[in-house]
C-alpha cells in the first residue's frame, strides 16, 4: 500500500500522542515537512524509474525520491536512473552486469537530475558506458556500466542460499514496528526513547517505499536487542507495484532496493552499544547482476553484512536471492559513518 502524506501524518501523530513523548513531535514534524513524495502520483514506478530524453545521450528524472529527514535525493534512485540511462544507449540483447557508482555530492529534489551518457566502447560481446549525473551544472555522481550479451556458458556454480524463515511467516517492518509501539502504549514493553524514535522513523519511511520489507529478525533490524557487527542481516523484499513484462523495470527495482539496507548493516548494531552517528552517507555503490531476467514482484531475500569498519568508513556486502535459491545479484558499498554526541551510559 502506498500511503499519502496526510495518512502518514495522522497515523504517526496519533501514535506519538499516545506514547506521550512530546519531544518527538519536533523531530517528526521535521521529517514530514521535508517529505516530497507527491500524493497525486498514480504510477510511482514510472515516476521514479522512467526518464525523459532531453537530447542524444542525455536524460532527466521525472520525479525524485527524497530522504525523510531532509530534501536529499535517495542515492538508490540516482544509481538506478544512471543505469537506466546507459541502457537506453545500447543495442537490444545487451544487459548490464557490472555497475560501479561514486556519489560525489548530495542532490536534492529542487531541480531535475540530468544523466549524460558517454559511449566508451561497443564490442561484439561487451559494451561500456560512463554516466555523469548532474544537477545545477554540478556532477553529483558518476557511474560506469558494463553490458554483456547473453551467451552459452561452459559451466555454472554458486553458493547455497541461507536457510531462513519464509516471508509468509513474518511481519512487514511496518507491521512489526506498529506491534511494538502498541506494546509500549499498553505498558507491556519498555524501550528507550531513542529506539522509539527509530521505530517511528522506520514507520514513516516504510509507508513511503515502493517496495515491501520483511526482516527475518525484526528485533535486530529495529535495534531492539544488543548485537555488534559483523552479523548478517536477512530481509525479504519485493515490489509493491506491478512491474509489467519489461525486464528493465525488474532490474531497476533490484538496483533501487540495493542501496536501502547496506549501510545500516554496518552500523546499526553499534547503536545498541550507545553509538550515535552524526553522518551516514554512501561513498560508492556497486552491483553485479548475475541473471538477465528475474521477477522483482516476487519475494527476494536480501542478505547484507559488513566485513570491516575503520577510519570512519564501513565496508558492506549484499546478496539478492530468489525464493528458489538462485543468486540474482551481489552488491558492495563503502559508507562514511561519523560520530555525533556521545550517549551517556
UniProtKB/TrEMBL annotation:
Keywords: Hydrolase. Residues 70-148 form the Acyl-CoA thioesterase-like N-terminal HotDog domain. Residues 235-334 form the Acyl-CoA thioesterase 2 C-terminal domain. One of its GO terms (cellular component) is peroxisomal matrix. GO terms for molecular function: fatty acyl-CoA hydrolase activity. Pfam families: 4HBT_3 (PF13622), Acyl_CoA_thio (PF02551). One of its GO terms (biological process) is fatty acid catabolic process. Transmembrane segments: none annotated. The keyword Hydrolase applies. Belongs to the C/M/P thioester hydrolase family. PANTHER family: ACYL-COA THIOESTERASE, ACYL-COENZYME A THIOESTERASE 8. This is Acyl-coenzyme A thioesterase 8.
Amino acid at each position: 500500500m502506498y500511503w499519502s502524506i496526510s495518512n502518514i501524518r495522522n497515523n504517526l501523530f496519533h501514535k506519538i500522542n499516545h506514547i506521550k513523548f512530546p519531544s518527538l513531535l519536533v523531530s517528526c514534524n521535521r521529517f514530514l515537512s521535508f517529505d516530497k513524495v507527491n500524493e497525486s502520483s498514480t504510477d510511482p514506478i514510472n515516476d521514479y524509474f522512467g526518464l525523459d530524453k532531453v537530447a542524444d545521450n542525455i536524460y532527466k528524472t521525472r520525479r525524485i525520491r527524497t530522504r525523510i529527514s531532509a530534501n536529499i535525493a535517495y542515492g538508490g534512485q540516482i544509481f538506478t536512473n544512471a543505469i537506466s540511462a546507459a541502457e537506453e544507449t545500447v543495442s537490444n540483447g545487451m544487459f548490464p552486469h557490472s555497475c560501479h557508482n561514486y556519489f560525489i555530492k548530495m542532490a536534492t529534489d529542487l531541480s531535475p537530475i540530468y544523466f549524460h551518457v558517454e559511449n566508451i566502447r561497443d564490442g561484439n560481446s561487451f559494451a561500456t558506458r560512463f554516466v555523469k549525473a548532474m544537477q545545477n551544472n554540478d556532477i553529483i555522481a558518476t557511474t560506469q556500466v558494463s553490458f554483456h550479451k547473453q551467451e552459452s556458458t561452459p559451466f555454472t556454480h554458486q553458493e547455497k542460499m541461507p536457510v531462513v524463515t519464509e516471508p509468509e511467516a513474518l511481519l512487514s517492518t511496518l507491521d512489526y514496528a506498529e506491534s511494538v509501539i502498541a506494546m509500549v502504549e499498553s505498558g507491556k514493553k519498555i524501550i528507550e526513547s531513542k529506539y522509539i524514535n527509530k521505530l517511528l522513523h522506520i514507520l514513516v519511511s516504510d509507508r513511503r517505499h515502493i517496495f515491501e520489507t520483511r526482516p527475518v529478525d525484526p528485533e535486530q533490524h529495529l535495534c531492539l536487542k544488543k548485537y555488534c557487527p559483523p552479523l548478517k542481516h536477512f530481509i525479504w523484499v519485493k515490489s509493491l507495484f506491478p512491474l509489467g513484462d519489461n525486464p528493465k523495470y525488474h532490474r531497476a527495482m533490484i538496483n533501487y532496493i540495493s542501496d536501502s539496507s547496506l549501510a545500516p548493516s554496518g552500523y546499526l548494531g553499534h547503536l545498541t552499544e550507545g553509538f550515535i552517528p552524526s553522518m551516514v552517507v554512501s561513498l560508492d555503490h556497486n552491483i553485479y547482476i548475475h541473471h538477465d531476467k528475474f521477477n522483482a514482484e516476487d519475494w527476494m531475500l536480501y542478505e547484507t553484512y559488513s566485513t570491516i569498519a575503520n577510519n570512519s568508513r564501513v565496508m558492506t556486502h549484499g546478496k539478492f536471492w530468489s525464493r528458489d535459491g538462485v543468486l540474482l545479484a551481489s552488491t558492495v558499498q563503502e559508507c562514511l559513518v561519523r560520530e555525533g554526541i556521545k550517549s551517556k551510559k
